[in-house]
Amino acid sequence: MPSKASNRTSRGIHFIAATLALTGGSFYEQSALAAPATKPAFPRIGQMLIGSPQPYGQASSQAQMARFDLVIIDVFPSSAGPQMRSTLQAIKAKNPNIIILDYLVLNEVSRTGPGQQYLRDKLNAEKWWVYPSGTSGTPVSSVWPGAAMTNYTSAVPTDASGDRYNTWYAEEQYRFSVE
Questions:
Q1: pLDDT digit string (tens) for 67-122?
Q2: Is residue 175 part of a domain?
Q3: In a domain, 89, yes or no
Q4: How far is CA 109 from the centre of its chain?
Q5: Across the chain, where does the E strand assignment appear?
Q6: How many domains does the chain have?
Q7: What pTM was computed for the model?
Q8: Which of 1, 21, 59, 72 could form a disulfide with 48 if both were Cys (CB 3.0 to 4.6 A apart)?
C-alpha cells in the first residue's frame, strides 16, 4: 500500500500536469475540457499570450486563440474562476483539438503585487521561501526586480494537508482556473 507521502507526490504530479494541460490532457475526460478530439498533425502552431492586457474573455480574442494548435495563457486569481472556465470552454468549442497551457512562475513571487498576497501569506506561514540560512530571515531576492525566491524543492516541510509549495501552488492554480 503506498504511503501518504507517495500518494501526495502522485497527486501533486497530477495537479501540476492538469494545471499545465488545462484543456489538452486526459485529466478532463468527463468534462467539456476534454482531450483533443483528434491528434493534430505536425507542425503545430502556437501562441503565447501572457502579460497585460489579458482579454481572454473577449470573443475576438477567443476566436484568435482557437486558430492555433496550442496557446499559453497567464491565469491570475483576478481573471480566474467560473469566468475563466467558460472562456476555456468557448475556446475549446471553436477548436476541440487546441491545447491550452497555463504559464506558471513557480520560482519567485512579487514582494508587493496585490494579486499575489495569497501566495506571500502561504509562503510566510509555511516558510517556503529560499532563505540565506535555515528557515528564517529575509527571503533571498530573485533576479526579477521586487521578487523573492521560493523553495519548491522536496526539502521544505509539508503543510497541514501534506503539501509542499509546488503541489499546493498547482492545486491553487487549478482551483482558480478550472473549478
A1: 999 999 887 655 556 677 888 889 999 999 999 888 888 899 999 887 788 899 99
A2: no
A3: yes
A4: 14
A5: 46-49, 70-73, 99-102, 108-110, 147-149
A6: 2
A7: 0.65
A8: 72
| Separation CA 171–CA 168 (nearest Å) | 5
Same domain as 37, residue 87:
yes
Distance CA 6, CA 80 (A): 30
Q: What residue numbers bound the domain in which 83 lies? A: 4-105
Same domain (yes/no): 123, 60: no
Q: Which three-class secondary structure state does DSSP give residue 148?
A: strand
Instruction: Summarize pLDDT for 4-46 with one digit per residue, the tens.
Output: 444 444 344 434 433 444 333 323 333 445 555 667 678 889 9
| Shared-domain flag, residues 59 and 30 | yes
Q: Are 34 and 28 in contact (CB under 8 A)?
A: yes
What residue type is 140 in one-letter code?
V
SS3 readout for the chain: CCCHHHHHHHHHHHHHHHHHCCCCCHHHCCCCCCCCCCCCCCCCCEEEECCCCCCCCCHHHHHHHHCCCEEEECCCHHHCCHHHHHHHHHHHHHCCCCEEEECCCCCEEECCCHHHHHHHHHHHHHCCECCCECCECCCCECCCCCEEEECCCCCCCCCCCCCCHHHHHHHHHHHHHCC
